[in-house]
Automatic annotation (TrEMBL):
Keyword terms: Methyltransferase, Transferase
Positions in coiled-coil regions: none
Organism (species): Selenomonas ruminis
Protein name: Methyltransferase domain-containing protein
Record-level Gene Ontology MF annotations: methyltransferase activity
Length: 253
């Protein structure tokens, strides 16, 4: 993944990420007792939900700080530090599950990630995932781009937000047959007391690299002021999320 996470702030203020992920679990059709990998498990919240659903689970994440939180919160579960592009399992999994992760993988590495996922699934095993789709956060990203340009900077977001038509061929080419895919709007209210400024500071870091803190604070403040009439109602901010939800089955080589 291409972002350094603040694990405690993520767990305390942005728990909606894994809370929405619970619904994605309903796409898993493997029986209880199946081996499920939670790829990009973060603080382990969904790994624990998968275990509670009766699966044998392993959480994998590239962030040591996130895994520290996961092991502290769920000492009874197994976790492994590894990258989505290169992780290796001792035995192929029945399901590889991933929520809110794929859009953090660079676009030019998506196929490599999918090939590695396929290599770690048994034949007939499932990939079940949800991630950002085309248009996700477009109002926030668009306003940031305007503010960056206003002060002589270029805004280059790092997230990869594809369409279904763009993404499913990559899945097919990797040796996985897509049997379910949907793109949908999911406007996402932020926790009470948090604004779009908090969201930007958590999820949009690299575009500000090298910028003076004073200028960064000004751009974030002015972005919030400009977006408030549209995205903030009665003190609650709602970010314009768009999601792809997808299930694919590994086919025989």
């Amino acid at each position: 993944m291409n972002l350094n996470w603040n694990a405690k702030d993520y767990g305390n203020g942005f728990s909606f990420v894994h809370e929405y992920g619970e619904d994605v679990m309903s796409l898993i059709t493997a029986p209880k007792g199946s081996q499920v990998v939670d790829l990009g498990c973060g603080n382990g919240a969904l790994t624990a939900k998968l275990a509670q659903a009766g699966f044998k689970v392993l959480g994998i994440d590239a962030s040591a700080t996130m895994l520290e939180e996961a092991r502290k919160n769920h000492p009874e579960l197994s976790f492994k530090e590894a990258d989505a592009l290169s992780f290796r399992l001792e035995e192929p999994a029945d399901v590889i599950f991933s929520n809110a992760v794929f859009h953090w993988i660079d676009e030019d590495k998506q196929y490599l990630m999918l090939r590695n996922i396929a290599a770690n699934l048994r034949t007939g095993g499932q990939l079940v995932t949800e991630f950002g789709g085309i248009g996700c956060g477009a109002k926030v990203h668009g306003m940031l781009a305007e503010k960056f340009a206003e002060y002589g900077y270029s805004y280059h977001p790092i997230q990869f937000f594809p369409s279904i038509g763009e993404y499913t061929p990559l899945v097919d080419q990797a040796g996985l047959r897509v049997d379910y895919a949907i793109l949908f709007d999911r406007p996402t209210p932020q926790p009470e007391g948090l604004s779009v400024s908090d969201w930007i500071r958590m999820f949009i870091q690299q575009p500000f690299d090298g910028m003076a803190e004073e200028m960064k604070a000004r751009i974030i403040r002015e972005t919030e002021e400009a977006l408030a009439p549209e995205l903030c109602q009665d003190g609650i901010w709602t970010i314009d999320y768009v999601r792809i939800r997808l299930r694919a089955v590994k086919i025989e080589n």
